[in-house]
Design brief:
The protein has 7 helices and 9 strands. By secondary structure, the chain is of the alpha/beta class. The chain has one domain: Rossmann fold (3-Layer(aba) Sandwich), CATH 3.40.50. A 7-stranded parallel sheet has the order 3-2-1-4-5-6-9, with helices on both faces. The longest helix has 22 residues. The radius of gyration is 16 Å and the shape is globular.
């Protein structure tokens, strides 16, 4: 297990991001969670909130400065749980790219430039830049963008239907019970715990790891 680690989280005020923050705080060796947000939040113990203009041209440099400060105190990893949820259908492809490639990309590059080696990325099942479907295509582009940055360890989380999420209609969750495998249901708490377990248990490893529903549930069971 990684010793005495911190996590810098973008998208921690969202549904899955909140589950990831809660799971990280449940691990005693997590010394701090640094949440980068656009507006101030009420931060619990061991959470440091830093307000940034994520759309600013200097967001990447600001992220790098934050990451260097966190790394000066010990090991640290980065997490992006950014997502637009049910609103994705109303967004144009350019709007999605500005968020998923622009903002997430700037955050990731800033973390990498500061020396962070492990990055956890929330994506979506079936993501590929070659998809005919806009959202899945942009998610695939986001994954490729992160690969190009060169993190020593890149963990990609591709959930199917997210259960317990305010953006997932009840009827979709019900139908998801009959969908097998990676396209079916996964509880957002399991996603959050799997992200926390990846950081706690695999922070010193190298390479790319992709977690779909079954793998996330198995990893979540290892969260301590």
């Amino acid at each position: 297990m990684t010793q005495d680690f911190a996590a810098i989280v973008l998208g921690g005020t969202g549904q899955v991001g909140g589950a990831a923050v809660a799971a990280l705080l449940a691990i005693p060796k997590c010394r701090e969670v640094v949440m980068i947000t656009r507006t101030p939040i009420v931060a619990p113990s061991r959470v440091r909130n830093i307000v940034c203009d994520t759309g600013a041209s200097g967001f990447g440099e600001r992220t790098a400065a934050i990451a260097r400060d966190v790394l000066s105190q010990g090991s640290a990893s980065a997490v992006s749980c950014v997502g637009v949820g049910s609103g994705s259908m109303r967004w144009s492809e350019d709007e999605l790219k500005r968020l998923e490639l622009g903002v997430v990309g700037a955050f990731a590059r800033g973390c990498h430039n500061a020396g962070i080696e492990q990055f956890c990325l929330l994506s979506a099942v079936g993501s590929t830049a070659r998809s005919r479907f806009r959202y899945i295509r942009v998610m695939g582009m986001k994954e490729d963008n992160l690969r190009s940055i060169g993190f020593r360890r890149l963990a990609i989380f591709r959930p199917g239907i997210i259960v317990g999420n305010a953006h997932t209609p009840t009827y979709v969750e019900w139908l998801g019970r009959f969908v097998p495998g990676r396209f079916g249901n996964v509880d957002q708490r399991d996603i959050g715990r799997s992200i926390a377990a990846e950081i706690a248990l695999h922070g010193n490893e190298a390479g790319e790891a992709i977690f779909e529903n079954a793998a996330m549930k198995a990893l979540a069971a290892q969260a301590v």
